[in-house]
């Protein structure tokens, strides 16, 4: 019996240290993608050149992965469980909206680069998967706003949609991670070829970018694991959400 309980105790990591580690990992991913684009890819600009494209990976990793992951974990903070839920709904929705804005700007950067260079849009698996993720994200945010933030949404609708919202939240994050990983790989194949150190020879840039992809993957897996852990889920309140909204609005 002791052998059965020991692994469980070893995995009983407190949420706040885990969250601090996850935040550090997310900031590291953002710093690394910025360093990659600045050091190896020439930096940033808005002139339609390859430096305009460099905004795309930075904004996508920052918004679609790191900021979106932070939004997903808002309800897992134990100190918020005894407080009204409405402020955390607003924070969750605001973080997700910020992630969506950065994502749209990242899409605008890559489309501007392609159009300026005469490169076709939406022909690769990475582009299909990325656009599908963004469209699903937009639907998720709009549906969540209508179901959970508007005061006239019925309680039965919220209860019906909540597990769907949670499922697609994790799904979008995993699709975001897959899109970023495939985009990093695609960029390396396009950049490290004739005239440069080839990708197959694993130059320093390839090692750096591959490591970045692995860290993004680890970040996404850890966020999904935190979302799936029962002990870190906010307990359901005895009072319905609609009552909290009415109280917050003054009656």
TrEMBL record:
<feature type="transmembrane region" description="Helical">
    <location>
        <begin position="164"/>
        <end position="185"/>
    </location>
</feature>
<dbReference type="GO" id="GO:0140571">
    <property type="term" value="F:transmembrane ascorbate ferrireductase activity"/>
</dbReference>
<feature type="compositionally biased region" description="Basic and acidic residues">
    <location>
        <begin position="233"/>
        <end position="251"/>
    </location>
</feature>
<feature type="transmembrane region" description="Helical">
    <location>
        <begin position="58"/>
        <end position="78"/>
    </location>
</feature>
<keyword id="KW-0967">Endosome</keyword>
<dbReference type="GO" id="GO:0031902">
    <property type="term" value="C:late endosome membrane"/>
</dbReference>
<keyword id="KW-0472">Membrane</keyword>
<dbReference type="GO" id="GO:0046872">
    <property type="term" value="F:metal ion binding"/>
</dbReference>
<keyword id="KW-1133">Transmembrane helix</keyword>
<comment type="function">
    <text>Transmembrane reductase that uses ascorbate as an electron donor in the cytoplasm and transfers electrons across membranes to reduce iron cations Fe(3+) into Fe(2+) in the lumen of the late endosome and lysosome. Reduced iron can then be extruded from the late endosome and lysosome to the cytoplasm by divalent metal-specific transporters. It is therefore most probably involved in endosomal and lysosomal cellular iron homeostasis.</text>
</comment>
<feature type="domain" description="Cytochrome b561">
    <location>
        <begin position="21"/>
        <end position="228"/>
    </location>
</feature>
<keyword id="KW-0325">Glycoprotein</keyword>
<dbReference type="InterPro" id="IPR043205">
    <property type="entry name" value="CYB561/CYBRD1-like"/>
</dbReference>
<dbReference type="Pfam" id="PF03188">
    <property type="entry name" value="Cytochrom_B561"/>
</dbReference>
<keyword id="KW-0812">Transmembrane</keyword>
<dbReference type="InterPro" id="IPR006593">
    <property type="entry name" value="Cyt_b561/ferric_Rdtase_TM"/>
</dbReference>
<keyword id="KW-0349">Heme</keyword>
<feature type="transmembrane region" description="Helical">
    <location>
        <begin position="90"/>
        <end position="113"/>
    </location>
</feature>
<keyword id="KW-0458">Lysosome</keyword>
<keyword id="KW-1278">Translocase</keyword>
<comment type="subunit">
    <text>Homodimer.</text>
</comment>
<feature type="transmembrane region" description="Helical">
    <location>
        <begin position="125"/>
        <end position="152"/>
    </location>
</feature>
<keyword id="KW-0249">Electron transport</keyword>
<dbReference type="GO" id="GO:0005765">
    <property type="term" value="C:lysosomal membrane"/>
</dbReference>
<keyword id="KW-0408">Iron</keyword>
<feature type="transmembrane region" description="Helical">
    <location>
        <begin position="15"/>
        <end position="37"/>
    </location>
</feature>
<protein>
    <recommendedName>
        <fullName>Lysosomal membrane ascorbate-dependent ferrireductase CYB561A3</fullName>
        <ecNumber>7.2.1.3</ecNumber>
    </recommendedName>
</protein>
<feature type="transmembrane region" description="Helical">
    <location>
        <begin position="206"/>
        <end position="228"/>
    </location>
</feature>
<keyword id="KW-0813">Transport</keyword>
<feature type="region of interest" description="Disordered">
    <location>
        <begin position="232"/>
        <end position="251"/>
    </location>
</feature>
<keyword id="KW-0560">Oxidoreductase</keyword>
<keyword id="KW-0479">Metal-binding</keyword>
